[in-house]
Amino acid sequence: MNKTLSNTTQSHQLRKQMEASNVFFLVYVEVIVLLSCFNLHGFNLLGLVTASPVVRGNGTDQHALLQFKTKVTGDPLKIMESWNISIHFCQWHGVTCGRKHQRVTKLDLQFLKLSGSLSPYIGNLSFLRGLNLADNSFYNQIPQEIGRLRRLETLQLTNNSIRGEIPSNLSACSKLTLVDMRSNQLAGEIPASLGLLSNLKFLNFANNSLKGSIPPLFGNLSSLEVLSLAINALSGTIPEALGQLTNLSFFSIYGNAISGNFPMSIFNLSKIRSFDIGANKIQGTLHSDLGITMPSIEFFSVAGNQISGQIPISISNASNLNVLLFNDNRLSGNVPSLEKLDKLVNLGLGKNHFGHGKEGDLKFLCSLVNATKLKFLYIGTSNFGGELPKCISNFSTTLLNLVIEQNKIMGRIPNGIGNLINLEVLSALENQLSGPIPSEIGRLQKLNIFFAYTNFLSGTIPNSIGNLTMLIKLALNENNLQGSIPISLGNCQNLLLLDLSNNNLSGSVPREVLRLQSLSIWLDLSSNYLTGELLVKNLGSCVSLETLSLDDNLFEGPIPSSWSSLRGLVQLDLLDNNLSGGIPEFFVTFGALKYLNLSFNDFDGVIPSEGVFKNASATFVEGNNKLCGGIPELHLSRCNSKTSSTTSVKLKIAIIVVMLGVALVFTCLLVLWFRKKRQQHPRTICEENWLLQLSYQSILRATNGFSTQNLVGAGSFGSVYKGILEESGEVIAVKVFHLLHSGASRSFLAECEALKNIRHRNLVKVLSAISGIDHKGNDFKALAYEFMENESLEDWLYPSTSMNEPETMRNLNFIQRVNVAVDVAH
Ligand SMILES: *[C@@H]1O[C@H](CO)[C@@H](O)[C@H](O)[C@H]1NC(C)=O
Ligand SMILES: *[C@@H]1O[C@H](CO)[C@@H](O)[C@H](O)[C@H]1NC(C)=O
Ligand SMILES: *[C@@H]1O[C@H](CO)[C@@H](O)[C@H](O)[C@H]1NC(C)=O
Ligand SMILES: *[C@@H]1O[C@H](CO)[C@@H](O)[C@H](O)[C@H]1NC(C)=O
Ligand SMILES: *[C@@H]1O[C@H](CO)[C@@H](O)[C@H](O)[C@H]1NC(C)=O
Ligand SMILES: *[C@@H]1O[C@H](CO)[C@@H](O)[C@H](O)[C@H]1NC(C)=O
Ligand SMILES: *[C@@H]1O[C@H](CO)[C@@H](O)[C@H](O)[C@H]1NC(C)=O
Ligand SMILES: *[C@@H]1O[C@H](CO)[C@@H](O)[C@H](O)[C@H]1NC(C)=O
Ligand SMILES: *[C@@H]1O[C@H](CO)[C@@H](O)[C@H](O)[C@H]1NC(C)=O
Ligand SMILES: *[C@@H]1O[C@H](CO)[C@@H](O)[C@H](O)[C@H]1NC(C)=O
Ligand SMILES: *[C@@H]1O[C@H](CO)[C@@H](O)[C@H](O)[C@H]1NC(C)=O
Ligand SMILES: *[C@@H]1O[C@H](CO)[C@@H](O)[C@H](O)[C@H]1NC(C)=O
């Protein structure tokens, strides 16, 4: 009964994995349209001079520039050094002056690693026509004085860290044609007065934190060609008036919280080439003449909204489209023929209600065979039915992603799928596909992800699957696949996730497959008819494997000791097999383990009570009649000491544990006692005179930079290194505390406090305590001890079972063990 529960959570988790792989469809790549039509040089000097009532002297410009310089606080390239009065300011880096009047007309300091704030004196450069501070690190606000730059035509502050609001006085710069403030931290609302800038052709506020709504007055920006407000926090509706922007070619409000119906007038933008209202809350239907009223459209996305109705048939006339995204809306009906859209690169229709769940729904796919640049085709999570048409084999080989998952698609996977030789992602999960997986799948040698789970696929897993050496995730679970797992699967050396569960697979698991060292997320072979032993040495190399499900098979034999290295396991399910032998102690040390199901096997012996076994809602052992012990909640019988062959060893260990406990209590009492004694100055720990005065640097040198050769042992709170002091040649042991581990700091204080004051022949002497900062600026705490040969006591008490060590050498006899215990108690 736990089985069904765990299966649902598993497939849920798998689905999450899946979704992560599809994110690319929602990732939006902003098309940056560069306008080349800004003529900065055709400037009528006389006209402007006469138009300006006050002609200030050129001394003002120098003063203003010097004031600008004082606010530049960071200048690693030393650009501002040239800004000194020993040379004329017109020769300063980035400054351009008018030829006759020697006034600053252009200030271009793009990409110079400058930081600082913007001086209000900038407003005194009254002849300035171009200001470009893009790609620096200017911060603080844009001064309102910017509004005094009556001749300003281009203002580029792109990619800085500018905060505050957009200055409303900017509307006074009536000559502005280009304003680019994208990628800053601008907040507040967009000043409506910017709608007065009737010469504006390019306005980009993308990637800031702007709130409020789009000012309807923007409909008066009759020269506007580019308007991007993408990735802000704008709300409200799309103003009807934007339909008047007859020159608009690029429009993006992607990634805001704009709602309401979108106005039909917007489809009158006859020059539009890129239209993106994706990731908002917009409702309404698409205009039936869409493909005719927007004849130049290249990029059209309404993805991630609440749009309903059908895709207008007129879209088939929009033959310049290369990106067409309808994903994640409430669209329905048939998808029209897209046969003229032969420039398509990315077609997203997924997460809608398209189709009628029957034959003919996918006819439109065959209209795509002439789309020779097609890379992404996403029709997942809709209501498409019928068979997958054979024409998919005639798709362009440029195709990288084919996602048809979560529909009602039936029939076979066409053999011709093997033609799509550049495919990287193929997801057909949760459909009604039947028949075998075509052996031609082996031609898709670039495939990373192949998901076909939850279908009715039958036959054997083709041997050619071993050709897919780039495969990272393979999930064929919940089908009717039979036969054995192909040995060739062992060639897929990059697999992180493998799920073949819930099929009719039989035979033993090829060792080639279990040797896959890459498997680190998921290995699920559960609910098949797999047989044989789990004696797989090499599975132990999948140190980071998180989920291992072998439940509901016919595996037999013991749990291999090599599994002791699967320390990353979160979930291990061995339910319902024929496994035998004892429950390995090492599961106790698997800190991440949250679910361990050993039920309905033939295990025997004592079940541990520590680690995961402490938690009755994480450990399942029922149906193993020969198990005993464990926590009472598991309701197992008490262990009979006479029948257990390992009892004498366990007893010894128990004695030692008790004695260690006594010693611990004793230490605690001592600590408390000393604390009380020193209450006058608490918390100024470990600054007393130690036998040695050591610094971080000296320890760094002594341990060879904490090299792994010097590593003696590691625990949860710290690592112990062997070190040789440079000055004296003395050998020390250094325990470095892992301060990121909560508790390590406390452990340091406790150990430091306790050991400093205690001298005993059975305790290692603490030579010094080091508390400071390491070379990365992190806190560093360590204790230096006398070095004891012969490694850790733990290894002596619990000899490791690893193969390459002569075990007999390290086994203590009973007398030795008692002596250890007595010494510990002392
Ligand atoms: C200002 O301009 C005059 C000529 O127009 C020139 O003689 C003088 O050197 C300039 N001063 C500065 C500081 O550029
Ligand atoms: C002024 O700038 C010039 C040109 O970069 C440079 O050679 C000179 O050293 C600078 N003078 C001072 C005082 O920084
Ligand atoms: C220049 O701008 C500053 C600050 O905006 C102002 O105080 C000053 O009076 C202006 N005029 C001149 C000639 O510097
Ligand atoms: C933004 O500016 C930083 C320097 O401040 C630069 O390293 C980075 O490449 C720029 N980003 C873009 C997209 O130009
Ligand atoms: C902003 O503009 C208003 C109106 O044009 C003007 O009165 C005010 O002085 C300006 N503020 C600054 C700081 O330039
Ligand atoms: C916007 O434009 C319309 C027509 O071009 C004009 O009548 C109206 O006054 C303008 N609005 C503003 C605030 O300038
Ligand atoms: C679209 O433009 C045409 C003519 O340019 C006009 O007649 C029509 O009313 C406009 N439609 C909308 C919804 O603004
Ligand atoms: C495509 O455009 C042509 C010419 O403008 C027009 O006759 C035809 O009806 C359009 N087709 C669709 C499906 O709108
Ligand atoms: C693809 O192009 C060929 C040759 O131009 C043409 O004969 C065929 O009808 C086109 N097919 C589709 C589905 O557009
Ligand atoms: C694929 O295209 C070829 C010719 O280009 C045609 O003969 C064949 O029938 C097409 N196959 C399918 C399944 O549409
Ligand atoms: C497997 O790959 C080899 C080349 O590496 C290729 O010759 C063979 O046809 C492929 N097998 C299948 C079934 O695609
Ligand atoms: C389980 O294994 C034992 C031997 O270990 C064998 O006798 C028994 O038949 C197996 N049970 C099943 C159901 O395979």
From TrEMBL:
Which GO molecular function, any one, fits this protein according to its record? protein kinase activity
The Protein kinase domain covers 706-826
Q: Does the keyword Ubl conjugation apply?
A: no
Transmembrane ranges, per UniProt, are 21-43, 653-674
Q: Where is it localised?
A: Membrane
Keyword annotations? ATP-binding, Leucine-rich repeat, Membrane, Nucleotide-binding, Repeat, Signal, Transmembrane, Transmembrane helix
Q: What membrane topology does this protein have?
A: Single-pass membrane protein
GO CC, one annotated term: membrane
Q: Which residues does the annotation say bind ATP?
A: K735
The name on file for this protein is Protein kinase domain-containing protein
